[in-house]
């Protein structure tokens, strides 16, 4: 029986992995500059964490979670997103005791049972950031700008940011009444999910992919914002403009999670078929308390790394992932073969990438192997050279070859 990878997953093979490493390195470097520190949380958590944190009326919780009972008959779920686990860790490890704003980032796999298509896998990877402890609109703008700058530094073209304010609980309650008045006459024509959400969380209806075209005349939540929410949203826009972040306001943007307050946003880019959202996020001032911690404000964003990689490919933005080999060692003769093993290890200890033949091939085949590995140099050792304590060093770019002392090989390459 030939085994195959599970539906909705993919193997990242050598040659592709190096490009992913560059994508990840860019995220780490950017977070260092923005002063975010890495956090690594478990891949599975208690199911109830996501039910409370993400929201029971979301597609994620209702349809997409990979949940299972462990041997202790506890319900566990493979994490469908990163924020809930980070918030749980923030509370459990009392990071709220820190005197400064707690700024964290994560990179890792998430899991959702979805219909696989371009840019949508059942195991996918996200790069995300979370900032806790500040209500200042400047931190909202910083988080939005961080994600935008990440896309810009990778070279992605035509990335846009859509932003909205989903207000505070009082504003949302006022909006809920207006939205229900708009939706009720059309209730029977809406899909079953929308009909159900009208009762429990009407804002979720605006996130429906089936009936999206019916909501063109829906009232805008921006008209229901109180003075505090309006002022906060205006300041976020002002700061984004100051940082030259390319944004537009989308008053129907509510995002697919229940925990957002005030700022909500998405990053849009063309190149992955029907899906154009490559990430997003928002403020979640009540989430820390909901998960059992003190009432600390927070804001975060996450970007889908498969989608980023796909767009880089579609836009033909080349990431030179595979690094050339520093030196390939060629042995001609039994004594030379033994010495090559010693020299190879010394080179690796000194920080060089180095390789040799393990298949007993002749010199011509070994030189071809060095070519395939894009070696910058080959070092050729025969038994005669070994007796003289010498080795031939050849530049693969120029073809120039010279003899150096074996004891000086590392220094010569440096």
UniProtKB/TrEMBL annotation:
UniProt GO molecular function: ligase activity
SUPFAM superfamilies: Class II aaRS ABD-related (SSF52954), Class II aaRS and biotin synthetases (SSF55681)
Broad EC category: ligase
Entry coiled-coil feature ranges: none
Annotated EC: 6.1.1.21
Domain (Aminoacyl-transfer RNA synthetases class-II family profile) ranges: 8-324
One Pfam family per UniProt: tRNA-synt_His
Gene3D superfamilies on file: Anticodon-binding domain, Bira Bifunctional Protein, Domain 2
Subcellular location: Cytoplasm
Similarity comment: family membership: Belongs to the class-II aminoacyl-tRNA synthetase family.
Protein name according to UniProt: Histidine--tRNA ligase
Organism of derivation: Paenibacillus vini
Species classification: Bacteria, Bacillati, Bacillota, Bacilli, Bacillales
